[in-house]
Amino acid sequence: MGIAWWLATLLGEERPLFAALGALLGMEATVAGSLRRTALQVVGMLGGLLLAFVVGSVLGGGPAAIALAVLLGLWLGRGIGSPDRIGVELGVTTLVLVVFAAGDPSFGVTRVWETLLGGFVAVSINALVIPPDYLGQVDDDLHDLVTATARGLREATRIFVERPRHEGADDTLERLRGARDHLPDIESRLTLAGSALRLSPLRRGRGPLLERYRDAARLFGRAVDHTTTLARVVHEHAHRQHPWQHGGLAGPPHLVRAAEAISLALERYEAYVRDGHPALLGDVRRELDRARGALAEFMTVAQVERGVEADVQRLVDIAAVASELEHLVADLAHALGGLLPLEQAPAAPAAAR
User: Fold this and answer.
1) Domains of the chain, first to last
2) What pTM was computed for the model?
């Protein structure tokens, strides 16, 4: 606002109030937002200029003229379905011109170029001096999401297999649902980050990182969905009246091994997203191979145990847990499909490991 005021005084305006207001109102979350807000201000002021000239010529500057001018501005803005606050801009501009300039168009023209100057200053600072950057927030959000998903996956599977009374099933499910509820916030910040990078020359070099974050958000979103479904199966199993004694089956412990490997794969994928080094994908694929091996062993044992297990509902619940683990493996494998092959990747930095 100070820069806008100073530039306007250099151009001959003694009290360039509208230049400062243009800068204030033009400060948006992104460069695109600043451009859009400034454009809306100018459109509203031009409409208010015309409206003030008409009202001032017909009714002068009395109370009736002021009331009618503001009402007409608000009504026109709403009538044309204008975005944001064009109707308010129409009303305020009309009010100022009627009161302070008796509808004089030259006064309004000066206010328009002052507003443009203030908007230009806001856009310039947004793009070149202090460009907005939302990738840090996205990074924190994705880390929280992966941490909650990996922890929930480990806990839910162990609660199902290793705890006869399934203690903690309710809390695990609620934590996963809470993590999943934050997915719209992550998408919103990714949209802001994309807008900021698109029009900020100083941030364009972070485009590859943004693309990795977008891919990761899609993968982690599916992962938390499958993990929440798995936790819901465990929750329903825990609250169902079942007469069998837990344990006695050799298959379910392999599901715990698979869940542990998948959790580690998700965490290593997050490390790749943050660092960008393709060799980190080797860790992901090794954990996926471990998960596939554990699931294959589970299937082999389950084929045998299915013929001797009398509790059908327990088999159904075990199969449901195994199914969600298979979905998680498939999603991770698909995410890796378009990335660099392992044999083309140089060694990962020691710090990243």
Assistant:
1) 2-129 (no CATH), 135-344 (1.20.58.220)
2) 0.68
